[in-house]
Amino acid sequence: KRIAFLIAILSISAAYAEQMESVCFFVSQVHGDDSNSGSATRPFKTVARALREVDGKGGEINLDPEGGYYTQSIVIRKGGQLNRPLVIDGHGAIINLGIDVTKGPWTDTGNGFLLERAVVPNTRLWIASVAFVNGIPVSCDAPKGSGAWHDQPRASHQGYVRYDDQKRLILTFPAGLNPANSVIVLPGGGTDFSSGIQINEASHIRIRNITAAFASNDGFNFHGDCRDIEMENVKGLFNGDQGTSAHETCEVTVRNSEFAFNGSGDGAVEDIQSSVTSYYNVLVHHNRNKGFSFPIRQGDTGRHILDKITSYGNGQENLPPPSDIVVMRDCQDLGKSKVEKSIPILTNPAKAHVQESSVSDDDQLGRFLRLRP
């Protein structure tokens, strides 16, 4: 994969390479060092280091997918320029913020399994999913994370999380699952509002060929007055809240992408307030609730385009109802059961190995979650 990465970089046209020579940087977790120059042969080690060179100026950051997941959020605060956007090309890289707690240890309390390991309680509780069990997003059952919300547990077939008086996590597993036959991941990233890629008040940005997974908040999150944002061939998978979400007056276009297995209490794609968004050739499936959510309040001026969308298997409606703020063209709602649920095969990186686990080697998600450098 290292060779493929270098070939992809060297394939840049001579004219483009000359134009971008002073603003084209490379990141490699395996071969990089933040004291390097950031060139293809002397790459940086972290995305944050590369952003110091281009955020606000424009330029290109190329990620080497070799060497494991990128485990820190990418935060863009300034962006690029009108004639020189800020480009992040993942070349297939994965941002994985998850905390794998499969090995626990777990103790059966008779009313759920207690995680005998200190974790910071999630404060968003039932709004976002606070755990994933074999890819199933699991939320809290009570507004404060403990005590009864209803006389009967809510959606118990999908499992739920509670916290005891010592703020220890207690997990009631989805039907048929337990610690012996499950992969259990807590979405993370440092805070309950950590996203895989976060863009704040920044414009003229291109995000390509990258997957954001297991963020406690969204895979891709846009806030403030963000203009001229484009994403191509991205995936937002297994995130605690949305796969992607635009707020305030953000303007975002997404092409040839996928948002699946996300745990939002609203939608896998949720664009709110006066955001203007467009989605072309996008796959949305098997999310906890709606496929798309475009809430509108008095004074909001949001507008949204859905073109060639395929949506299925979501917990609630797959496509939004017709409205005066959503333009829909050639969209397919494949229902709840017409298409079988499938876990994506994310093979990355070349040097990964499978740690010892009780999970079968045939479990694609289990293999994905255990990929380590």
What is the β-strand count? 24
Beta-strand percent range: 25-35%
Mean pLDDT comes to: 84
- Number of DSSP helical runs: 4
Q: What is Rg? A: 21 Å
Largest sheet: 10 strands, parallel
The shape, in one word, is globular
Write a brief structural summary.
By secondary structure, this protein is mainly β. The chain is 8% helix and 33% strand.
Q: Could you walk me through the main structural features you see in this protein, from its secondary elements to its overall organization?
A:
This protein is mainly beta and 373 residues long. It is built from four helices and 24 strands. The chain has helices at 2-10, 14-20, 47-54, 364-369; strands spanning 24-27, 59-63, 74-76, 86-96, 99-100, 106-108, 113-115, 131-133, 136-138, 160-163, 169-172, 184-186, 197-200, 205-213, 220-223, 229-237, 244-246, 251-260, 267-271, 276-285, 290-293, 303-312, 326-329, 332-333. The model is unreliable at 13-20, 147-156 and 343-361 (pLDDT under 50).
Core attributes:
373 residues; mainly beta; ten-stranded parallel sheet; six-stranded parallel sheet; globular; 24 strands
Summarize the helices and strands and which ones pair or pack.
Layout: H1 2-10, H2 14-20, E1 24-27, H3 47-54, E2 59-63, E3 74-76, E4 86-96, E5 99-100, E6 106-108, E7 113-115, E8 131-133, E9 136-138, E10 160-163, E11 169-172, E12 184-186, E13 197-200, E14 205-213, E15 220-223, E16 229-237, E17 244-246, E18 251-260, E19 267-271, E20 276-285, E21 290-293, E22 303-312, E23 326-329, E24 332-333, H4 364-369
Parallel strand pairs: 1-2, 2-4, 3-13, 4-14, 13-15, 14-16, 15-17, 16-18, 17-19, 18-20, 19-21, 20-22, 22-23, 22-24
Antiparallel strand pairs: 5-12, 6-7, 7-11, 8-9, 8-12, 10-11
